[in-house]
Design brief:
about 500 residues; alpha+beta; Dipeptide-binding Protein, domain 1; Dipeptide-binding Protein, domain 3; 7-stranded mixed sheet; 4-stranded mixed sheet; SBP_5_dom; ABC transporter substrate-binding protein; Peptide/Ni-bd; peptide transmembrane transporter activity; SBP_5
Length: about 500
């Protein structure tokens, strides 16, 4: 299986990017999975119930054990979630626990010590019952629980100091379908090796037991290996491969809907030159999305016109007015707003992004009359690290593959003020009206009522363009002649139990 190198060690609460998430999904069983209608269905959970959408009771399904043989218990979730939420642990997914009562006690602010032992809204009632109290009702809570951040952790994950150890991050003990064969030495190892866990209570592959993630820094190299049957599954084919994959692979090429969005990110908080809305609108209007989707991606992308993907309830066609190609108006607006004469767009070269980022740079050069260049970073982890450390001030390639099927997931984890410190808000965007609308959506009496507020928050993004939506993904994957029945799910992860060897 093809993979880019994970950004961090393999700790669920510190994993917010696709490569690490895909690895961890093989090792852990989430509380919920998602069916074909995008509804949350219990997985490691027996039941998830609430009478008021504020106090939730999670019953754990019997039969799950950790890869070291210990039983899965409710306290494992309490320990993992408290660790994730504590600001002293600086976990990148800590933001997702912000709705749990007591999160504020674990996040008193920079320079202030944490005095609470955990979130008061978390309680292991007994070994199989977890009680979660939120600060306010949140109708989407059950839907969230399939996300990586909500995986549990065994006692063995923690050292004497209460921190998750590096040894655990290199060889995580999970309670899912696969277990690690050996530690993964990030930066050195080119593979992540696993075996089926015999005591996993769910469905297992019928005729194979070994899974290897093979790390690539070039998508085209992976495609060459796939064609030579030296790689069994490639689930993120690049533009160059897509144009020939159908003819080369035949029925082994798959093109299916995907809930992701491809953006040009804007470092608003770290580059004053891009702070004017009209500059961002001009950049957006200078991008020929239709040609990029049809030519660069061989028709396997569609032009983005909203921050919410059409696969999820809440999308509105044409919601982003500045996403319409209008080069003449773009140049006029850019010049009147005093846009910078030079723009750089950073992208990760270990993914299939060179062609479309260069196409956008050419659009900006031609339509705005500026010097626009594409800057490759060797790995996705590299650009994320530079964004995390506030070093990179150029525009940047960014994508969002959903964590869970809700309109809210396209909004608050990327653009809310709380997501700057402990989420995926790499641009540093902050807008109180946006945050307030998200809160109203969270606390609405029903999913339908909440969606109205999320769409109003989405309207703010479409007007201010903290990121610039470029395209909606489709999932383009291929597999070798050695396997069959390969399915990619809503989270862009392989359904491993279904895969069969030929």
């Amino acid at each position: 299986m093809e993979l880019g190198e994970p950004q961090e060690l393999l700790v669920p609460s510190n994993t917010t990017e696709s490569e690490g998430s895909e690895t961890l999904a093989a090792l852990f069983e989430p509380l919920v999975n998602y069916d074909e209608n995008k509804n949350a269905v219990e997985a490691a959970a027996e039941s998830i119930t609430s009478e008021d959408q504020k106090v939730w009771t999670i019953k754990i399904k019997p039969g799950y054990t950790w890869h070291n043989g210990e039983p899965l218990i409710a306290q494992n979730y309490v320990d993992a979630w408290n660790y994730a939420a504590n600001q002293e642990n600086a976990q990148s997914a800590g933001y997702f626990f912000g709705r749990v009562d007591g999160f504020a006690d674990l996040n008193p602010g920079e320079g202030k010590p944490v005095t609470a032992k955990g979130m008061k809204g978390l309680e292991a009632v007994d070994d199989t019952t977890l009680k979660v109290t939120l600060t306010a009702p949140f109708s989407q809570f059950k839907v969230m629980l399939g996300y990586t951040a909500f995986y549990p952790l065994p006692k063995a994950a923690f050292g004497a100091d209460g921190k998750v150890t590096n040894e655990y991050g290199e060889k995580p003990i999970g309670q899912g379908l696969f277990k690690m064969d050996k530690p993964f030495k990030k930066g050195t190892d080119q593979t992540i090796d696993m075996s089926v866990y015999d005591k996993y209570p769910g469905a297992k592959p019928k005729n194979w037991t070994k899974l290897q993630f093979k790390l690539y820094t070039n998508s085209d190299t992976a495609f060459n290996d796939l064609q030579a049957d030296n790689l069994d599954i490639h689930d993120s084919l690049g533009p160059a491969a897509i144009s020939t994959a159908k003819a080369t692979l035949g029925e082994r090429y798959q093109d299916q809907p995907d809930a992701g969005v491809g953006y040009i990110g804007v470092p608003l908080k770290y580059n004053d030159e891009l702070n004017k809305v009209d500059i961002r609108k001009a950049i957006s209007m200078a991008i020929d999305r239709k040609t990029i989707a049809e030519t660069v991606f061989s028709g396997t992308r569609s032009p983005a016109d909203d921050f919410i993907n059409p696969a999820i309830a809440g999308y509105r066609q044409g919601a982003c007015k500045a996403c319409t190609y209008n080069p003449a108006e773009a140049k006029k607006l850019y010049e009147s707003a005093g846009g910078p004469k030079k723009l750089e767009i950073g992208y990760n070269a270990d993914g299939p992004h060179k062609e479309w980022i260069e196409a956008i740079a050419n659009n900006l050069k031609a339509n705005l009359g500026i010097d626009a260049t594409a800057k490759p970073f060797e790995k996705f982890a590299s650009i994320l690290d530079e964004l995390d450390s506030k070093k990179y001030k150029g525009l940047f390639r960014m994508g969002w593959a959903i964590d869970y099927p809700s309109a809210e997931n396209y909004l608050s984890p990327i653009f809310s003020t709380g997501a700057i410190a402990t989420g995926s808000n790499y641009g540093g965007y902050s807008n109180k009206a946006f945050d307030d609308l998200i809160a109203k959506g969270d606390q609405a009496a029903s999913v339908e009522e909440g969606l109205k507020f999320y769409q109003q928050a989405d309207d703010i993004l479409n007007e201010e363009l903290p990121y610039i939506p470029v395209y909606f993904y489709r999932n383009n994957s291929g597999y070798s002649s050695k396997v069959k029945n390969v399915k990619i799910n809503l989270l862009n992860q392989v359904e491993w139990a279904d895969v069969e060897k030929v």
